[in-house]
Write a structure and sequence with these properties.
- The protein has ten helices and no strands.
- The chain has helices at residues 3-26, 35-65, 73-83, 90-94, 106-124, 132-135, 143-154, 164-172, 183-193, 199-212.
- Helix 8 (164-172) packs across helix 10.
- With 236 residues, it is mostly helical.
- 59% of the residues lie in helices and 0% in strands.
- The model is unreliable at 19-43 and 45-60 (pLDDT under 50).
- It has a domain at 73-223: Helix-hairpin-Helix base-excision DNA repair enzymes (C-terminal) (Endonuclease Iii, domain 2).
- The radius of gyration is 34 Å and the shape is globular.
- The chain binds iron/sulfur cluster.
- Iron/sulfur cluster (SF4) is lined by residues 172-173, 213-214, 219-221, 224, 226-227, 230, 232-233.
């Protein structure tokens, strides 16, 4: 064999060995050689790699979807709307947006109202503050009333007005992730998951529901449309 023939053979053997190593690295060494199959397998491998990347991207969106929300809350809400359709609870006649509360204890209320009117005249030109931090500085005004005033007087829904009814019913329906001890805790827990466009409605809806059906000591669970899907329902 001539030197030139030896060089050609060495070159050919090297190409074969390099090809084999390449297939081994790409995981195709066990497959039968065949141009189309090899191309198809390479294409499938690339497609699999692309699918994995898209899966990782989708994982980020899935996290958002997994944000906590209560079980059956939409059905609870629809049922309460049905039970409140007559709008004949006390809150519908004399709630914060209607009139004064005749059952309220008068002493502190009168004192607070007198002080507040003086402050409003001196500091706000006879008007009321248009923000929650200033409203809660007024005597006797807490977060519940401040958010209700923002909604009713300024048409600005700044938060959910949570009183004892909203607090109690939210815990019975498990609309809070963990049991809450105060209305303010409940407000923050509700605002964490509840769509903002429901914040204004939820106060009058639950207050009236609490006055007529889901009462503090003797809730009328047997008459409640939520009795089968309410975790706090009393089974009699
Ligand atoms: S089933 Fe009972 S506890 Fe539950 S929302 Fe209705 S009245 Fe309230």
């Amino acid at each position: 064999m001539s030197a030139a023939q030896s060089a050609v053979r060495r070159s050919a053997r090297n190409r074969v060995l390099e090809g084999a190593r390449g297939k081994e690295q790409s995981g195709h060494i066990a497959q039968k050689p065949g141009g189309d199959n090899d191309k198809k397998s390479g294409g499938e491998a690339r497609a699999k790699r692309r699918v994995q990347v898209e899966y990782e991207k989708t994982g980020g969106n899935t996290d958002k979807k997994l944000k906590w929300e209560p079980s059956n809350w939409r059905q609870h809400l629809e049922n309460i709307r049905k039970m409140r359709i007559a709008r004949d609870a006390p809150v519908d006649q004399m709630g914060a947006g209607k009139c004064f509360d005749q059952s309220a204890a008068p002493e502190n209320k009168v004192k607070n109202i007198r002080q507040t009117t003086l402050i409003l005249q001196e500091k706000y030109g006879g008007d009321i503050p248009d923000n929650v931090p200033e409203l809660v500085k007024l005597p006797g005004v807490g977060p519940k009333m401040a958010h209700l005033v923002m909604d009713i007087a300024w048409n600005n829904v700044s938060g959910i007005g949570v009183d004892v009814h909203v607090h109690r019913i939210s815990n019975r329906l498990r609309w809070v992730k963990k049991e809450t001890k105060t209305p303010e805790e409940t407000r923050m827990a509700l605002e964490d998951w509840m769509p903002r466009d429901l914040w204004s409605e939820i106060n009058w809806l639950l207050v009236g529901f609490g006055q007529q059906v889901c009462q503090p000591t003797s809730p009328q669970c047997t008459n409640c449309l939520n009795k089968d899907i309410c975790p706090g329902a009393k089974k009699k």
